[in-house]
Amino acid sequence: MLKIILCGCCGRMGRAITDLVSRMDDTAIAAGIDPADCGGLSYPVFPDISGCTVKADVIVDFSHRSALLSILEYSLATGTPAVLASTGYLPEDAAALEEASKKVPIFRSANMSIGIAILTKLVKSAASALGDDFDVEIIEKHHNKKLDAPSGTALHLAEAVKAGAVSPKTEVYDRHAVRRERGKSEIGMHSVRGGTIIGEHEVLFAGWNETISISHSAQSREVFASGALRAARFMAGVKTPGIYGMDDIFGGE
Predict the structure, then answer these.
(1) Is the pTM value of this prediction over 0.90?
(2) Which end of the chain has fewer CB within 10 Å, C or N?
């Protein structure tokens, strides 16, 4: 039985994971972490992970970047692997994560969808094959409650473009501030916020008289919950410290 400590259990993703786990026979949420106990959950909820008295096989975090340090401290103190799915980390957060990964296994992904993992591979391959003959634009759409823009996934996709590109590329955000032609080194970044859009990402390669669009649309938050649980199962069996990601899941199966 896989036992999970779920950080952000009262949020949208926390509830999606709770619902998915409730339909499983081999997985259970041992405890939830959330400053505001929403009540009605089948497991104990602690306001902060530092006060959690329940042991588990892995931590799954869908809370907020402000909780990262306490999660890393708990992970280090107990030797519990962590799956980090929050976005909006600052440079100092990334540094703390890197330091913790020297002593405990950490899984980090900007998007827990398996489809996004495949999309990332396709984008890198396309950037390499198309070279500088195609301009690259990234468009992401999310619900009106999302705080960060562009999304962590959009930034991740931009990194995939840069990794595959034949020449250096740089993200460009506010074109309205400058009147000039588009440069070949640009990766245009565009964010849409509205309604209840769960998550849509498109990478557009625009060439001479033709365009190529590679996109992913999440139909339900369950796709992220399913990916997170897949990562949790993988990490529960990892003993070697380090930073892991979606590529490691594919390689480990």
Answers:
(1) no
(2) C
